[in-house]
Structure formats: C-alpha cells, structure tokens
Amino acid sequence: MNRAKLIVFSALGAGVSLIALVAVVRVAREERSEPARCPPGLAVAGARCCGGGQSLDAARCAGAPRSCAEGMHVAALPSPGCAADPHRIEYAGGELTLGPSDWEAEGTVAPRELTARRFTLDATEVTVEAWLGCVSARRCRATAVTEPGRPVTGVTPAEAARYCAFAGGRLPTGDEWLFAAMGAEARRFPWGATGLVCRRAAFGLERGPCARGATGPELAGARPDGRTPEGALDLSGNVAEWTTEPGGHFAARGGSYRSTVAAELKSWSARDADGAAPDVGFRCAYDAR
Fold first, then answer.
1. What values do phi and psi take at 263, rounded to 5?
2. Three-state secondary structure call for residue 128
C-alpha cells in the first residue's frame, strides 16, 4: 500500500513539474516575441510594418500589397505600396502653458506661454507619394526612397519649406506644432499622459526596444493607436519634424524611429538642427481661411 501511494505521489509530482516547465517555456517565448506594433491590414516584416502580401527586400517593403491599414490606400507610384490618405486637421489656436511637470523636462524645457492663431496642419508626415507631385512639377528634387508611403527624409528645412509652398502652405511654427501635439490639456505624449508603447509610436526600431535593424522610418500613419484626440498621427516617433523657430532657426521635433528613451518622444521634445538627416522629415501647416 505504501509503495502504491509513493508511485502515485511521484507521478503527480512529475505532472506538476511538467506543467510548471511548460508555463516557464510559454512565458519565455512571450518575452522573446516582438512587441505588438503593426495595425490590422499591415504585417510585421523584420523591423517594418508592410502591406499584406509584401515582403522585405533590403529593408524595403516590396511587391504589390493585398491589404493596407485603415486610413491608407494602395499607391502605385513610384512603386507599389501602402500610403496614408492625405488629410488636414484644423486647430482653433489660442494660448497654452508649456511647463511639463515630469523630471525629464527639468533644465530642458523653459516654462512659457504659447500662442497661436487658427491654423490647419497635415494629419501625417509628407510622404514620398505626395513629394512626387512636387518633383513632377520640377519644384522639388527626386529622392532615393521609392516606397510611396514612407515619409520624405534627407531634406533640408529650405527644401521642406519649398514643398509646403508648392502645396499651398508652409512649415509649422514650433508653437503650432506644440499646440497639435499637446492639445488644450498639455498632454505629455500626443495621445495622452502615459502609455509609450510600440503600437503607439514608431521608435526604438534601430537597436530596440521595439525592433532591431531598421535603417529608415516606418510608413507614415502606421501607428494609428498613437493618434492625437484631434486625429494627427506620428507626432511622436517615426521621423522628427522640421519647425520654424523664433530668430529664424529651425528645430526637429518629436523624436524618431531611432529614439530609445521617453524624453526624446514627449510632446515637448526638440533638437536644434539645420541640415538634412535620415531621421528628419516634416509636415505642412496652412493659414486658416
């Protein structure tokens, strides 16, 4: 009888150990799996989100997409791919107090009052597809990137301003950009006070934490969970964006796919810059009519 009990207890112990081992393996696999970042309609391809049916070829989404995310369309030029539907958002302007309360802003952001008149802003970064119209009109130079939905990068503030003039607008001022990113409630991130995760912003794609091996930005609009309450996309991450600043200089705002820490991705984040860079793009602002 005692021997029988011992055999039963041994079997039960082995079963519990096996269950525990399976649970540990499952957790380990989940921890190793890539964080969620691509919306429905797009699929994970290395460090990128590509259209359904596309494959990654030298960090480029290649082939004709079978599906795209909501708010995107299948573009044909300069090559097949998913591209954000162009649209604009109108802001009432007004006054806003810039005074971030978190410790990362100390010594970096000087509290001040922002003012802006009513203005309109592109909902997404200017894409290669949109830039192509300016190239065709011989107002802008051709770029090496051929994916229609990726943001234009590697352009100077003067080149970005030239495109915006072609589109009937201009580069946004720093205060206008902050109005769009922070809203009346002075949001810490464009979408809210907390929640910096890979499905909300295209960041940490080069060396982690969201992916590894990226050599350029994501498709514009590929993080719809990070849109502002007003509807603007990618104001945090993907590419930093040119703005005009007092005194005639320029800033690159909002962090990029290269950013790895929260301080680089908060609404108030900016760096002084004046030359073309692979992680800097832009969107245009328009005077209200």
1. -60, -25
2. helix
Structure tokens at 120: 């309109």
With a cut of 50, say whether residue 107 has pLDDT above it: yes
Longest dimension (CA), the chain: 94
**For 15-38, what is the mean pLDDT?**
50
Check residue 44 and give its pLDDT: 97
* Six token digits for residue 157: 């503030």
C-alpha triplet 221, 191, 65: angle, nearest 5°: 15
Sign of the CA dihedral with 10 first, then 13, 19, and 20 last? negative
Quick check: 225 pLDDT over 50? Answer: yes
Token duo for residue 276: 């073309």
Is residue 20 helix, strand or coil?
A: helix
Q: How far is it, in rounded angstroms, from Cα 260 to Cα 164? A: 30
Rounded to whole angstroms, the Cα distance separating 153 from 145 reads 9
Residue 81 to residue 65: CA distance in whole angstroms: 6
pLDDT greater than 70 at residue 43: yes
Q: Tens digit of pLDDT for each residue in 157-192? A: 999 999 999 999 999 999 999 999 999 888 999 999
Lookup result for tokens 């009519």: 289
Q: Are 203 and 210 contacting, i.e. CB atoms less than 8 angstroms apart? A: yes
Contacts of 25 (CB under 8 A, 6+ apart): none
d(CA 180, CA 264): 17
Contact 205, 257 (CB under 8 A): yes
175: tokens are 């205060």
